[in-house]
Amino acid sequence: MKKRIYSILLACLLIAALAGCGKKAEAVATETTVAQSQETTQESKAAEASTEAGADAFTAFEDPNGLFTASYPGTPKEMKQSVSSEGTAIDLYSYMLEQEDALYNVMYSAIPEGAAADPAAMLEGAVSNIPYTIEDSKDITLGEYQGKELKYSAPLGSDTIVFYHRVYIAGDHVYQLQAVSESGERTPEIDTFFNSFALK
Fold this sequence. Notes:
alpha+beta, three-stranded antiparallel sheet, globular
């Protein structure tokens, strides 16, 4: 999306991931590119092409680390954020595709050693630490794993961005999916993205 909401999205995901694990995020993440992103002109062309894509145009993407698969209407940009939390270094991996009128992101991180072991408590901690008013929340599952689905809004200048967000605690990782549409409505494409997510 042209509105450059990545900083909002990243801050929210970091807070949810770390607070949900019972850790306090005290340092600002340093963003590094895992794989070189496309040149601006190529990225623009891809965005323009994918803007016209409907749910049928989504194609499967496999995380290079072999942890998950998800469908995107194009190739996501792979990023890594390193965060220090109570002296523990945590790597958060993000796979985001930003279009003219939508955004799709999968992010995951390992659960730090010594974090709370109760998935339900971790989910509640993650939700309670999202710095925006939760408009809707419900319990979900991914196979045997517990999760939460959320809807909330964040201000961006004179605009308001509506986020659709899923959080899963799966084994020793926290997985988060976030999607945005320009209209703020939950589109069929958002459902296609959410429902395509699977652990390897």
